[in-house]
């Protein structure tokens, strides 16, 4: 299986462009699922304090025997920990659960605008990075006004913004803002979380058929060719393998354009919560 390519972040570090996300993987299944992911070749794991499964991720890392520098581990600061010194306490707890001295990427999970303390949280993450507790820092679910504010306040642009993104919901205002500032986009829900018939959409089915691949592989390829970072979730070994096996074919410009055209107007393709409503 070809090696997963890496993407260079704006702080000079590299991230594997495809990883394994563990949202909704039950705590008791996480060690097994992550161990299988590492066995089949994943080296990038995306978790979060709120997922409640950092210990399982840590147990799988420890059991793998893989050198630390071959792994890329992301976790996230939860919404009720933006204030005061809370981010420092929160990352310490995450590191303890993960069994690590440093994560590779730490994200502010949601801006929670009603709490209006995400600028402070971001400034705290800059300090956590400078203290060596995380190598890179970024945000998640930040809209352009949130991004503008944190950069204006600190002068530090996030390495990534992790946002809901799939063919029906492409958030082009954010991806364009990010491209102009060398901020990488991580697509969460890259397969639309199975909440609409993405795999049955004609351009996806046609591209899959043309390349002898599955619709899920065609969609993941679309993300990769857009330059996005992805970490699809599955707890089934055959799907873990399938989702990683996307580096031996390329969608044509016409196939990419046809999948682009699946975007729903006015943001109607969103399948999960809106960042202004999560507080
Ligand atoms: P996803 O789009 O990856 O969809 C996952 C679903 O797709 C699974 O339930 C699985 O049944 C199905 N699936 C996976 N591989 C498949 C395949 N090959 N064929 C058919 N079906 C397949 O959605 P997600 O899990 O929500 O997103 C991926 C990751 O993004 C998460 O695990 C998490 O790490 C991250 N995430 C982040 C946020 C955030 O707020 N930052 C929110 C949601 C998810």
Mind explaining what this structure looks like?
The protein is α/β, with parallel strands linked by helices. The chain has helices at 27-40, 54-64, 86-98, 118-130, 144-154, 172-180, 202-211, 215-226, 237-244, 253-260, and strands at residues 6-8, 14-16, 20-21, 44-46, 72-77, 103-108, 134-140, 160-164, 184-188, 229-230. The strands form 2 sheets. It has an 8-stranded parallel beta sheet with strand order 3-4-5-6-7-8-9-10. A two-stranded antiparallel sheet has the order 1-2. The longest helix has 14 residues, at 27-40. The radius of gyration is 18 Å and the shape is globular. Residues 21-23, 46, 109, 140-141, 162, 188-194, 216, 231-234, 239, 242-243 line the site of nicotinamide-adenine-dinucleotide.
């Amino acid at each position: 299986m070809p090696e997963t390519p890496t993407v260079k972040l704006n702080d000079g570090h590299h991230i594997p462009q495809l990883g394994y996300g563990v949202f909704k993987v039950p705590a008791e299944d996480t060690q097994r699922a992550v161990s299988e992911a590492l066995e089949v070749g994943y080296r990038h794991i995306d978790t979060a304090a709120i997922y409640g499964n950092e210990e399982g991720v840590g147990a799988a890392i420890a059991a793998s025997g893989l050198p630390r520098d071959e792994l890329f581990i992301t976790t996230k600061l939860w919404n009720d920990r933006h204030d005061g010194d809370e981010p420092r306490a929160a990352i310490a707890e995450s590191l303890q659960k993960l069994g690590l001295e440093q994560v590779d990427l730490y994200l502010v999970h949601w801006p929670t605008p009603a709490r209006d303390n995400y600028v402070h949280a971001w400034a705290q993450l800059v300090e956590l990075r400078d203290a060596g507790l995380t190598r890179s820092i970024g945000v998640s679910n930040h809209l352009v006004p949130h991004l503008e504010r944190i950069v204006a306040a600190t002068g530090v642009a996030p390495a990534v913004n992790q946002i809901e993104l799939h063919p029906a919901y492409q958030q082009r205002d954010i991806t364009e803002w990010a491209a102009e500032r060398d901020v990488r986009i991580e697509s969460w829900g890259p397969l639309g979380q199975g909440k609409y018939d993405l795999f049955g959409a004609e351009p996806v089915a046609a591209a899959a058929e043309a390349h002898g691949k599955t619709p899920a592989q065609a969609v993941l390829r679309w993300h990769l060719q857009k330059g996005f970072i992805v970490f699809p979730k599955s707890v089934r070994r055959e799907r873990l393998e399938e989702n990683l096996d996307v580096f031996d074919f390329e969608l044509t410009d016409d196939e990419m354009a046809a999948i682009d055209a699946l975007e729903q107007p006015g943001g109607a393709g969103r399948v999960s919560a809106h960042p202004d409503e999560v507080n």
